[in-house]
Amino acid sequence: MGHRHRGCRILLIEDDYETADEIVKDLTDHGYLVTHADTGQRGLRSARGRGFNLLIVDRMLPELDGLSIIKTLRAENIRVPVLVLSALTGVDERVRGLKAGGDDYLTKPFALSELAARVEALLRRPTDARETTLRVGPLELDLIDRVARRKAREIELLPREFKLLEYMMRRPSRVVTRDMLLERVWNYTNAPHTNLVDVHIGKLRRKIDAEGEMPLLYNVRGIGFILRVPD
Amino acid sequence: MSPTELLRATTFRLVAALAGLFGASTLLIFAFIYWQTAGSETRRIEALIAYDAKAEAGEPRDLIERFVTTRVTNDFHHLTYAALFDADGKRIAGDLDTMPPDLPPDGQVHVTRVTPPSQGGPTVETVRAVERRLADGSFLVIGRRSEELERLREEVARALGLGLLPAVLLSLATGTVLSWRANQRVKEVNDTAERIMRGQLRERLPVHGKADDFDRLSGSVNRMLDEIERLLDEIKGTGDEIAHDLRTPLTRVRARLENARRKSNSIEELEAAVDKSMVGLDQALAIITALLRIREIEAGRRRTGFGDVDLAEVVAATEELYQPIAEDRDIRLVTHIEPLPWIFGDHDLLFEMIGNLVDNALKFTPPGGTVTVTLEDGRSGPVLCVADSGPGILPEDRERVLLRFFRSARNQHVAGVGLGLSLVSAIAKLHEIRIVFADAQPGCIVELHFEGSTRRPAVARSVELQALPS
Fold first, then answer.
1. The complex's ipTM?
2. B3: distance to nearest CA of chain A, Å?
3. How far, in Å, CA of B141 to CA of B72, rounded?
4. Does B313 lie at the interface with A, CB-CB under 8 angstroms?
5. Residue B255 and residue B263: Cα distance in Å, rounded?
6. What CA–CA distance (Å, rounded) separates B410 from B393?
7. How many other C-beta atoms are found inside a 10 Å radius of the C-beta of residue B251?
8. Among A217, A227, B87, B291, which is least packed, fewest CB within 10 Å?
9. Which residues of A touch B286 (CB under 8 A)?
């Protein structure tokens, strides 16, 4: 899957070398070009070079903390997407991170696959929000009449299922994780560890992938789900 | 306490100021008494002799002579002088040999010195005297001895002086004692504070049971210390809990990895062990997250996220979230929602709390069972009731289910770490919700009584409803 990201440059600002090492390795495997900065000041200097497509910023850094870096960059009108990493779990912390200008917030510890999925989501912005009809293969979602169809077959969806499908269809062929869905579809940041999302996805899958039809909605083991038309 | 310390103390300075003020006011009162006693006596006598002189001056000469003679004769104590002199200053009658040299004949009282007829007494006396020139050119002199008045003045002054000294000394002494006692209390408090700062957290400020200012102050500081100690205990408790409850999954992970390292014969086996270990680690992390979160809710008592919440909407959203899971497990999830006035609370936390209860109910209900969620208007506020047809909670467990990590012996086979109800309990406490457990025979009923949640006026809602496009 690496070829898709060739040329995408990421700046990782993280003071823990071991963590940084693992992240750099994993993202490099995904085909990204990753630069690592180990202090806030160095990170800010590199980020100002404007050569990066994405910043991954740890919140607590020596010299200059992560949120200050983001605020400074935003004040200088540098609009590069930022993913905030933090060991602070409070709901307030998340809000603060996003308010400072972060585009996404990931709490430590996280799975590398979760990070990769979020990086991809930030680099490949979803389908234009002004689009009134979304299409993925035979699937069609009419956002004005609130109708879902698979070819001629109309699919009856509950409001939440509609929202779930819309989220997936705006990000075709991309892995979305359970946490991303909980956060974005249910606005739920503190889900009890159950198979909530799996059950909802399962229900949605039974509706869009009827028996005998080509499956479109897949589980990605240990990571999340993907909606795509098989090659 | 050293003397300088005593002098420096605020209370002492206050006391000194008060003693000064007290002394000054006493002095003022004494001056008034002095003026009123000695002064007025003098004025009275002066007025009297001036009046007598004036009255007699108008009388015929023989009456005046008689008056002078009678006055002298009747004056047994020899307090007054009276005399009549002719125009040349020769004595006609009375007990003065010569006219006082510096006394003007103006009818006003003057202090002067006279030479009384020598009777073994003093040769020169200070007197208050009046001299008037009569119509025939002679002079009438009436006087009164001043020594007696001076003595009166002196005595009054001495008496008052003697009174002033002890009064000021007494106020100073009282002040010093009071100040010393107050300082003793301050010292006690300081010493205790020192000990507390040195780590003896169970120390408390002394309360003397007099319900005075110090006691009240100590009381509130002690309550603050109680709360701090409780919070510290909680932090320590959290630490202990985390340590204790992480040890189990981490030990398991460690053993698994060790075994895999030693015995795995294939990459697949190794991978399986790593996968299992990751699950164990995730579980350990989930415990930390859940504990910190409970702590955040319990300790913070933060109500920053509070606002108007439509409980009916929260229950409906919970049902929507969990319905597929119920279906998946072949459990009927039924809700009865009565429209209710909005309550004041944290929407996300309430959602989390109700979600946890429903999650729990679904977890313990066997396939084919029913979970019923009811929201109705109780007498003292909304009542949310989650009933399941599971095994129920043993009566002896009812108190303990809210404790952290409590897992009934009956349910060891059900997955989970036993923190769900602790979270529910913490959120309920924040919202002043009373939790009641009951028996559904079979099954368990959890009732949430929203008693403390302030209701917002219904107006707020109708406005919002009108604002929506129809």
1. 0.76
2. 52
3. 12
4. no
5. 12
6. 9
7. 11
8. B87
9. 193
